């Protein structure tokens, strides 16, 4: 199994955590996003979208981090990353999608590039754009976990799962763009619990072989 | 069961198709997005994100269209909206996520409002923004379905499912923003096959009780 990723990609970071939680160690194939390797013919033959992550396993080519993570969960042993109850599964998936659909795509490299090159904005405006969407999205996430009746150490209960896998990389990006996380005590508490686990700590961008500043 | 939606919301449109395919008829509660009803206290008590759709079923409150659709699929009888094989499920989910993560959130009302009010762009620039992301995203979708070895009437095989549920509303939005769909013959063929089914036709925005031009 091979995982194509980039140290700073939030979506690749999610997959790294999931691989670690499931005890699976794919080969790592770096795709340098800032040098545009994701738009080159070789990579687009694998993923027509030209985005990381992509995972290959035999003849199978998988894309989109949430689809990859659910596939991992369905095919690999170990503790499940989603609860068994359909109602709870839906809550966890919805939380993951708040991040994967409504926060992360707005702060993606291709979007920031369009804001700067096509719409003529400077870096300060692009950063403010990111802070706005990440701040608004994480505030909704804080409210969702705040409402949880059975509060545990993680987003939903006492075991880490899909929601935490999405939260930690998004908080990392939030910090990068200067989002004020002080009004999100519950998310910060969950993140601190995640950071103590090797599955999360080892997946951190700074610990990847392609890391550069 | 109650479904909170808006006739023109792509994500609500997806849920309507899924309800129809599963033979479930929830009560419809309109949330008028252009009048800002989604940001009012009553609705945000239901969904802190202030976005449609939201579905209530007994005490359960569900948000995020893909999570709602998978919940429906897991709890209601009838033909499944996802294939049984994990590899195929991952392909279908990835296609749905290309649309739900990487296309639709960029053309959402809140994003267009920010482009116009915070960044000072006119309607023409906002429309060009939408055409760019929808065009690029649907071009990737065309390539994905083009590569399908077992070509059927729908995105993945001969039965409609989650991928088609996401595709049809996105093509409707593409047309609204003037995206050139002529270079996407396979997607147009699939959409035509979907349009023939009452589950899709009855879910069309123009057929909803809150429809206005």
From TrEMBL, chains A, B:
Its EC number is 5.2.1.2. InterPro entries: Glutathione-S-Trfase_C-like (IPR010987), Glutathione-S-Trfase_C_sf (IPR036282), Glutathione_S-Trfase (IPR040079), Glutathione_S-Trfase_N (IPR004045), GST_Zeta (IPR005955), GST_Zeta_C (IPR034330), GST_Zeta_N (IPR034333), Thioredoxin-like_sf (IPR036249). GO terms for biological process: glutathione metabolic process; L-phenylalanine catabolic process. Keywords: Isomerase. One of its GO terms (molecular function) is maleylacetoacetate isomerase activity. It comes from the Bacteria. Residues 1-80 form the GST N-terminal domain. Residues 85-213 form the GST C-terminal domain. The keyword Endoplasmic reticulum does not apply. GO terms for cellular component: cytoplasm. The keyword Isomerase applies. Belongs to the GST superfamily. Zeta family. This is Maleylacetoacetate isomerase.
